[in-house]
Each structure stands twice: as structure tokens, then as C-alpha cells.
Amino acid sequence: MNMPSLPAQAETNCVACNTTHFSGEAVCNFCGYPLKGTEQEQRSRLARRARYAVGLEEKMKRIKQSTYILYGVAALAALYGIMQYASTNEQERVWVLIINLGLSATYIGLGFLSRNKPRAALIIGFSVFILINLLNLLTEPTTLTRGLMIKVVIALALVKGMKAVIEAQKIRKEFNIE
Ligand SMILES: [Zn+2]
Question: Which of 29, 31, 44, 120 could covalently link to 17 via disulfide, CB atoms 3.0 to 4.6 Å apart?
């Protein structure tokens, strides 16, 4: 019997991302590591990967920080509702209290959601925040300047968080980092 000899298809693990490959592939198609590259190319890819892994850590920290803003909005809404309720006897102030407590509960819920789904929580949190401020502006134009600084800080922090989520996803995908 004369079997044609097949080229060896040994399995190897990618040094960078540990995905299993058949020997023969030049570049890891999961993380871009040059499996058949020169030592120099391999070393520089590993260094690049390490740099981006550090960047990823920083972005994860920033995402975490911006999710705390969600709890901050919850606290502010509750505080504002209670203060409005306490400071006047008008009947409609009850509604201000109810709406603000509802808002507070929503943001607490978003804070919990952000543990598993930070992107969704931040996008919803940002959208609701902008919507509330627009509605306030339409119904009571004088509210725009009230606490404007803190509103800007909240909006920017949420935007920063969303940006970090997108950047983190990009790094994870490019280097196949879990
Ligand atoms: Zn790899």
C-alpha cells in the first residue's frame, strides 16, 4: 500500500491569545499574531498587545466610573423631588415628587443593568437624561440654568463612558482579549 503522505497538520496554540491553530497558518486570525513572522515581528506584536491590554484596563475603569454617575443621577432626582415637595404646599408638587422618585428608581435600575450591560445602561441613561432636560426646558424655560454645571458634568461623564465602551470593544476584538 502506498498512501500519499499528507503534510503534517500539527496543532499549536497562539502564543498571544492561546487559540488553537493548525501549523501552516502565517497569522493568527483571532488576534493578528504573526505565527510565522520573524522574532522581531512577534516580539513587537506582543509588546503592542501588552500596551493595548493596559489601555483596556484603563477603559474598563473609566466605564465603571461613569456607571457610578447613574447612581448619582438617581440620588439627585430623589433629593430634588423631596426638596420640591417639602418647600411648597401646592397640590401639583406631589406629582413632582412622584415623577422624580420614579426617575430615581429608573436610574438605580440602570445602575444595576450597567454591571452586565454597560453600553445599554449608559446609552439609555444618557438618552433619558437629555430627554428630561429638554422636557423641562419646554415646560419651564427657567430650569435650563438651574444646576447647569452639574447637568453638563453628568452628560459629559455619560458620553465619556459610552466612548470608553466602544474603544474597549475595539481592543478586545483586535487582540482577542476576553
Ligand atoms: Zn492569537
Answer: 31
Q: Ligand 1 center to residue 5 CA distance, Å? A: 29
Asked whether residue 117 is domain-assigned, the answer is yes
Q: How many domains does the chain have?
A: 1
* pLDDT 10s digits, 122-174: 999 999 999 999 988 888 877 767 788 999 999 999 999 999 999 999 999 99
From ligand 1's centre to the CA of 165, what distance in Å?
Answer: 22
Mean pLDDT of 86-111: 89
Number of neighbouring beta carbons within 10 Å of residue 155: 15
Residue at 26 is within a domain:
no
Alpha carbon of 161 to ligand 1 centroid (Å)? 28
pTM: 0.80
Residue 147 lies in a domain: yes
Q: Taking the alpha carbons of 41, 45, 51, 52 in that order, is the dihedral positive or negative?
A: positive
Query: How far, in Å, is the centroid of ligand 1 from the Cα of 46?
Result: 10
Instruction: Show the domain range for 68.
Output: 56-175
**Residue 132 belongs to some domain of the structure:** yes
> What is the 27 CA–ligand 1 centroid distance (Å)?
8
